[in-house]
């Protein structure tokens, strides 16, 4: 069924279709309408789930951690400082290997307060062991929420579905609501390998020693370091799982086919722009314009940010003259985090394109298509590398 | 109201704690843990934040407890209990008893927000706070419920200046149907309170005083004696607040109209009170006397 609705509603519809059993959330702009939509669906019994209106984000994720540990499919959502307030629980959810899904409606972080969009919130949580997927439009939001549960439950790791605050969360766009029966074919009911259960007691997340240790039956149980190593290798495996999930999704729903990076006019491009979220769609106008002028340029929209699909990225960037990374986040005192990741992915390959980093749109600073056009065009012509010095676009000092 | 009291003769024999655990010798928590799990019964799920109880329960992959237990972060206990309950409702398993079990620091300080939220929402769980009156797991630092003048590693010379936070009163102010206090020195009274709590829907809060030989500075063989003295001096009182109705129970109830032991007798038994001088003792004695004058009035129906 096609509807025209806000991005937050698309996310809520995805949560409903995914058969989530426990939802806990705490309001924060611009995530709030998603939470409100879910309360409406639960309260009107359109959705058969437990909705827990908690007193903080820390508690919201705690509820999901416990509900997931007890064998239920769990969901929460937040933005900015709410996400940071969950930090301890983010590590806990990943360390406990719980397939929780959370929408992060991206927003800049205080201080000073801002309610507008950038990617600093989710990107600064990239090392918490969560899988991170970024969406470019409403169709991707609803589809990715559904896929996120499939990925999470396959690898037993939590997933963040990230999308731009206001730009996507509050704007209306047409999208297709998948058929419930098809979703059930794609995503069967959650059957955990283990769960809290009085009939089969277990003590979960206990103090664990650095070294492996025998259990009461003499079987070797991993030490803390092995448990961490397993999380890491399973997350690396998630790159393949994401691709398989996308293939399965495409078979049923006909959408997809670019699980890691969405490409726009990149096949033959000498110069490529890389960005995340809605910015990659805005950039398409720039590409159209420059192509008309004969500049050989395309744009990649990165969908999977953690685990970083390094091989796919290196392959995509192979043989390009210029790689221009545009991002709405900073690793303060260094450069944009995506820029560092892309350079790392290129290390050890023969391809060493000229590479530049542009920081823009922080705290909702307007991103003018004209400014994007200027930056891309100039950078393509200059054909220069600036390995650590990001250029700020739209800065008014 | 007077239900039949459990005695040592009819206390269930089944043990849910394996012999041998990692608590210190003489730990008051060991007594209440063993007794409390008997009262909760097999069909229960525990939620435990970092504390001495985490250590007591053992190191991965071996556990001292026979009940399923979710170890959670320090601030999240009551929210995690909420999550287990939500999952049980979603899976149509309403008979599972969910019990959160936290130390006084995890309850009165960092976990208070989540506990308050869960009480306000009316979550159907039992929250047991074992009060050893400091952060013992990290090495005896002051907590919100450390009594005034007590020496801890963060109040090392002049003792804690502030008074003990009255957590049961704070929780009672949420208007929940059952708030009780208990003591490791009276495990059967605690047992009966947990059993009663199980029969009441909504949030239930039980605050148990658990003497700690390591942190309080007394010989492990005196745990019960010291726990009793706290009650006999009137410093820690055993009571229940059922649907707002307050009544002293057990040993505290029996003290109504009688002379209490002087608080000074309690203070000399433990190293943590070494910083007390006569003036401080007298002022605390006066506070206890005033509190008990209030109890006497309530018992006589004058409020
Ligand atoms: C967020 C966070 N801060 C601090 C700690 C360190 N910590 C672990 S246990 C503990 C004290 C626990 O005290 P209490 O709740 O009174 O239980 P007890 O150890 O006395 O049994 C602290 C401070 C932690 N685990 N998590
Ligand atoms: S420090 Fe105190 S409360 Fe903790 S285990 Fe030892 S005796 Fe028990």
TrEMBL record, chain A:
Residues annotated as domain Pyruvate:ferredoxin oxidoreductase core: 269-370
Gene Ontology biological process: response to oxidative stress
InterPro entries assigned: PFOR_II, Pyruvate:ferred/Flavod_OxRd, Pyrv_Fd/Flavodoxin_OxRdtase_N, THDP-binding, Transketo_C/PFOR_II
UniProt keyword annotations, A-Z: Oxidoreductase, Pyruvate
EC number: 1.2.7.1
The Pyruvate flavodoxin/ferredoxin oxidoreductase pyrimidine binding domain, residue ranges: 14-225
Pfam families: PFOR_II, POR_N
Enzyme class: oxidoreductase
Top-level lineage group: Bacteria
Gene Ontology terms for molecular function: pyruvate synthase activity
CDD domains xref list: TPP_PYR_PFOR_IOR-alpha_like
Name of the protein in question: Pyruvate ferredoxin oxidoreductase alpha subunit
Organism: Desulfosalsimonas propionicica
Taxonomy of the source species: Bacteria, Pseudomonadati, Thermodesulfobacteriota, Desulfobacteria, Desulfobacterales
TrEMBL record, chain B:
CDD domains reported in the protein's UniProt record: TPP_PFOR_porB_like
Entry annotated with the keyword Oxidoreductase: yes
Enzyme Commission (EC) number: 1.2.7.1
Gene Ontology molecular functions: pyruvate synthase activity; thiamine pyrophosphate binding
Domain called Thiamine pyrophosphate enzyme TPP-binding: residue spans: 71-208
Superkingdom of this protein's organism: Bacteria
Annotated InterPro entries: PorB-like (IPR051479), THDP-binding (IPR029061), TPP_enzyme_TPP-bd (IPR011766)
Annotated keywords: Oxidoreductase, Pyruvate
One Pfam family from the record: TPP_enzyme_C
Protein's recorded name: Pyruvate ferredoxin oxidoreductase beta subunit
Organism listed in the record: Desulfosalsimonas propionicica
